[in-house]
Amino acid sequence: MGKMTAFQLKSFLPLVLILPWISQLSGTIDDHRKIAWSPNTGWISFSHGQGEVAVHFNGNNGWLSGYAWGENIGWLAMGSAGGGPYENLSVSDWGVNFDADGNMSGFAWGENIGWIHFNPVYGGVRLDRATGGFQGKAWSENTGWLLFGGENPLYGVRTTAFDTQALGTPNWWLTLHEVREDDTNAAGIPAWQAFIMDIPPDATTPFRIMNIQQPSPEAVVSFGPVSPKRKYTLQRKTDLNEPEWFTIAELPAPQHHGPTASLPDASPPPRAFYRVTVSLPAQNP
């Protein structure tokens, strides 16, 4: 079965039913930036009383769930009951997705206005992960454009899913794994450190140096586990009392997840102490 077009989706309208009182989702919308605008139907709130939109992310892609509310058009559902990511192939599997760059696709549904396309011709909606802001416009064949930002008056929609807690852990990761930032697992690994290492919060083996080989003329430091979403830096001291670590080599991003990787020290001194640091790239995953 191919991807659904807007025309194909319309054939399913009589089968879809929204019950707003069952929407008890934990939303992720900023209380101060929660309003979109339709010139033909008025204001749409993405966080309103019994219904609220939630933004989900798994590190690679994301999706919306929950309900927005328009005083003149009623409830708008961001996805089908099974949750995302959505295939948008059937009446039981439809909704709004976004890719790693925040580009949205798929359909929302309003019982009173029909389908809303988030990636239409001459439009489209994007989620800026750096700010959490929604940008652009979606299209309803029955009511026209749904706009996600404007200046006169100032309005817009922003998610808090990509905001971080005190130790730098993003809300989406904590929600995905159902942990708090300062939770510590049975192996003594805090959740915030697990995020930096890009390992599950229940992992029993942390990131560590595994081996140091010292064949002439270079030393090779092996470490792991590694992730393509992290940057690894090999540093050295010749005396632990030295105030600073000296950077020797960097691995910006391994090609894939793996148990080990290695970095060389091309000119090792007779005695050396090594460490490998893990950091996030400029664009957090």
Largest sheet: 14 strands, antiparallel
End-to-end Cα distance, whole Å, is 32 Å
Contiguous helical run count: 3
Oligomerization: single chain
Task: Report the average pLDDT across residues.
Answer: 88
- Tell me, briefly, the overall form: elongated
The amount of helix comes to under 10%
User: What Rg do the Cα atoms give?
Assistant: 24 Å
- Poorly predicted regions: 1-26
Number of strands: 20
Query: Given the helix and strand composition, which structural class is it?
Result: mainly beta
Structure summary:
By secondary structure, the protein is mainly beta. The chain contains 3 helices and 20 strands. The model is unreliable at 1-26 (pLDDT under 50).
Describe this structure in words.
The chain is mainly beta and 285 residues long. It folds into 2 domains: 6-159, no CATH class; 207-279, Immunoglobulin-like. The protein has 3 helices and 20 strands. Strands 1, 2, 3, 4, 5, 6, 7, 8, 9, 10, 11, 12, 13 and 14 form a 14-stranded antiparallel beta sheet that branches. It has a 3-stranded antiparallel beta sheet with strand order 15-16-19, with no helix packed on it. A hairpin with a 3-residue loop joins strand 8 (104-110) and strand 9. The longest helix has 7 residues, at 171-177. The protein is elongated. The model is unreliable at 1-26 (pLDDT under 50).
